[in-house]
Hints:
It is built from no helices and 11 strands.
Amino acid sequence: xxxxxxxxxxxxxxxxxxxxxxxxxxxxxxxxxxxxxxxxxxxxxxxxxxxxxxxxxxxxxxxxxxxxxxxxxxxxxxxxxxxxxxxxxxxxxxxxxxxxxxxxxxxxxxxxxxxx
Length: 116
């Protein structure tokens, strides 16, 4: 497992942007697929985006496709989520996750609030 710490959340107006970061500890970071998930109040946690260990393949939920971009810098053990054109329905706690066959390491989350 790796230890994950998210940062970059905050309050933003609709249409604005935020960039989330997830710093990972551990020497095997480069072997993990990294993902972002979110959980809004009263809702289940949902997938947002993922990126393979090489950064060559990315996946997005339909609700964020074209607005969010996931990237990683393995030399910095960090994965990013650039969020543009934010909507009030993007309000949630955002979690970073790492894994191989499944996600088995999770961060504590960072709050993103989008005001209308």
